[in-house]
Amino acid sequence: MSMAFVIIQSFGIISTIFFLLSYQVKSNKALYLIQAAGCGTFAIQYLLLGAYSGCLSQLFVILRNLMLSRYNQWPWVRCKSWVPVFIAFALIITRLTWSGPISLIPLLVMIAGTIGMWTNNAGLIRLVGLTFISPPWIIYDCVTGAYSAIVTEVLVMAVVVSSIVRFGWRQMLDTESEFQKQ
User: Fold this and answer.
1) pLDDT digits (tens, 9 = 90+) for 3-17
2) Are 46 and 54 in contact (CB under 8 A)?
3) Which of 29, 38, 77, 84 would be a feasible disulfide site paired with 18, CB 3.0-4.6 Å?
4) Three-class SS of residue 6?
5) Where are the domains of the chain?
6) Where are the alpha helices (DSSP H) in 23-103?
């Protein structure tokens, strides 16, 4: 095992910490910000692996999450017209970083994540993560060699289920609950 391998995988481990913490908070705003930090370290990992679709998709998520962290403060962020704008950015990123069918995975994740996150509903955010974000990333990570990211996605799925059990599914879906307030 080379030093480069250890360094590259360590970025995924750092991301793991951020993502596991992100689902332990009740505030969508905090979730978006903590996940943005985790995406930053994932972007570095993918860059070092030469997985440019994954790298740019993480930068995309950082921008999206920073905007969404201000969902309740900036009325213009709540506009659903941002969803197709971000989907267009996702398509452009995919075209610019195309390296074969594997590049479709970050595209799927960017689109599903954008739609799910823009609901600003804690339950739907977690549901999208369990179904359309973590499982495709596991496939992408296997192909690109982001082995520590595979562990992250498996742990994130377990933590999401744990947070649903801990906080309650109904409360997460309730648009008036503290989860929706930032």
Assistant:
1) 999 999 999 999 999
2) yes
3) 38
4) helix
5) 3-173
6) 28-49, 52-68, 82-96
Residue 108 identity: L
Count of beta carbons in the 10 Å neighbourhood of residue 10: 14
CB of 120 closer than 8 Å to CB of 28: yes
Question: How many CB atoms within 10 Å of residue 142?
Answer: 12
How would you label 11-39 residue by residue, b for 16+ Cβ within 10 Å and e otherwise?
bbebbbebbbbbbebbbbbebbbbbbbbb
Question: Would you state the pLDDT for residue 172?
Answer: 80
| Amino acid in position 51 | A
Mean pLDDT across the stretch 159-170? 88
Q: How far is CA 74 from the centre of its chain?
A: 22
- 180 pLDDT tier (thresholds 50, 70, 90): low
Interatomic CA distance for residues 156 and 21, integer angstroms: 9
pLDDT by residue (tens digit) across 118-133? 988 888 988 999 999 9
- Tens-place pLDDT, residues 15-69: 999 998 998 888 889 999 999 999 999 999 999 999 999 999 999 999 999 999 9
Token code pair at residue 133 = 């974000």
Helix (H) / strand (E) containing 176: none
